[in-house]
Amino acid sequence: MDELTAPEGFLLRPWHPDDASAVLRAFAPEEMDRQTSHPVDDRLGALAWIAERVRDRGARTTYSWAVTAEEGEALGCVELNLVNPVHQIGWVSYWTTESARGRGIAPAGVRVVARWAFGELGLYRLELGHRTDNPASCRVAQRSGFATEGVERGKLRYGDVRYDVERHARLADDDVNVD
Question: Which PANTHER family match (predicted)?
Fold first, then answer.
């Protein structure tokens, strides 16, 4: 469970304090403020973000991986949370650092985590969502084998603005899961 390897050569591993600089770079763009419940704008904020992922992994409530390439630096994150073992579902989220975008890191990581969730955790359904004004996140979902299911109107609120969210899902018995 600690490390997963993508066929594309990326390694997914647990977060550790040495990743604080990469987390700080990832959360530097303004739109990343929306991806966390507390500020990640200094080293202490980055370390707190990492500590939360380590704690949640230990509690088995959320599984978060740093996605790395050969040099070992965290280039992105794939997370599985809101796991409901009764209904066998979970929620997937992901991000990459600005410099890592467009390299296939997010879809590779999401595909590996999906296989792990269907196998190791025995989940049946994985869900994810993105703002409808985020076509890059939509491409990640599609390249990861998640089918579009529809739009949830006004689901997210950032400041005074509400955003529609496009929902995607992948099932354990989808054809995409056949190797």
Answer: ACETYLTRANSFERASE (PTHR43441:SF10), RIBOSOMAL-PROTEIN-SERINE ACETYLTRANSFERASE (PTHR43441)
Give 60's contacts (C-beta < 8 A, 6+ positions apart). none
- Global confidence as pTM: 0.92
User: Across-strand partners of 77?
Assistant: 66, 95
Chain centroid to CA 34: 14
Bridge partners of 150, per DSSP, are 167
- Alpha-carbon distances, residue 102 vs 2, 46, 110, 137 (angstroms): 26, 24, 14, 11
Spatial CB neighbours of 24, under 8 Å, sequence gap ≥ 6: 40, 41, 42, 43, 45, 46
Q: What is the pLDDT of residues 30-58, one digit of tens each?
A: 888 777 777 899 999 999 999 999 999 88
Closest CA to 95 of 61, 65, 63: 65
Pairing of strands 125-131, 147-158: unpaired
**pLDDT digits 0-9 by tens, 94-125:** 999 988 898 999 999 999 999 999 999 999 99
